[in-house]
Write a structure and sequence with these properties.
alpha+beta; 60s Ribosomal Protein L30, Chain: A; 2 domains; 5-stranded mixed beta sheet; two-stranded antiparallel ribbon; binds zinc ion
Length: 212
């Protein structure tokens, strides 16, 4: 099977069946892959991480939760699809720390909330050679020939590689705001996002240039 076939969702689903995963987790893999546009290895790992965090919290399906992804790679999409902690509903915070870890917690009216943090145990990953080589960005990992083995190791082994710790996350309570206007661009912006009267885009490097 070529690597092209391996990254096809149906290819990964057959690996998942071979790994003896439940129908429910296979269905989750299909939904997450569709959202992400393909079944990335990190996404598959993220699915097991989110499932573990939900189990540790004893969360019921559809429960309102908050999450942090410590990397912008893959993990945010598993959180959005499975736990509905999304960027748009403001229940997902994405940190650009590059740490492959998530934290999940219930809503809290206090300044902090008890949370579950799920991350990877490097020593346990070393038992899975292809998985570890891929994760370490090892030049010995050959995408063309090792992707099938990588998926098998992820689907069979990720759960054994997970570590869980109980932490307290800082919670920022919502603050009220009034309509405001940026003194530089003149666009409407909530006043609590203005600094010295200007919006973040006017304070920062512009990300677009107008076409005359
Ligand atoms: Zn502005």
């Amino acid at each position: 099977m070529s690597s092209r076939d391996e990254t096809d969702p149906s290819g990964v689903l057959s690996h998942a069946r071979k790994a003896g995963l439940s129908d429910s987790i296979i269905e989750t893999i299909a939904r997450c892959s569709e959202f992400h546009t393909y079944p990335a290895p990190g996404l598959l790992m993220g699915i097991f991480m989110v499932e573990r965090a939900l189990a540790e919290l004893g969360a019921s399906p559809g429960e309102k939760l908050f999450a942090v992804a410590e990397t912008k790679k893959c993990l945010p999409d598993a959180l959005q699809v499975i736990a509905h902690c999304t960027i748009g509903n403001n229940r997902l915070r994405v940190l650009h720390a590059g740490r492959f870890a998530i934290t999940m917690n219930r809503p809290s009216l206090e300044s902090s909330a008890e949370a579950v943090r799920v991350f990877l145990d490097e020593e346990r990953m070393k038992v899975l050679p292809v998985y570890y080589a891929w994760f370490m960005h090892d030049p010995g990992f050959d995408k063309r020939t090792m992707t099938g083995q990588l998926f098998d190791e992820i689907l069979q082994g990720t759960r054994d590689c997970l570590q869980v710790e109980r932490v307290r996350v800082r919670v920022t309570q919502r603050t009220g705001w009034d309509a405001g206007r940026c003194s530089c661009c003149g666009e409407l912006v909530p006043d609590n996002l203005l600094v010295d009267g200007t919006c973040a885009l006017c304070r920062d490097e512009p990300y677009y240039d107008p076409i005359a």
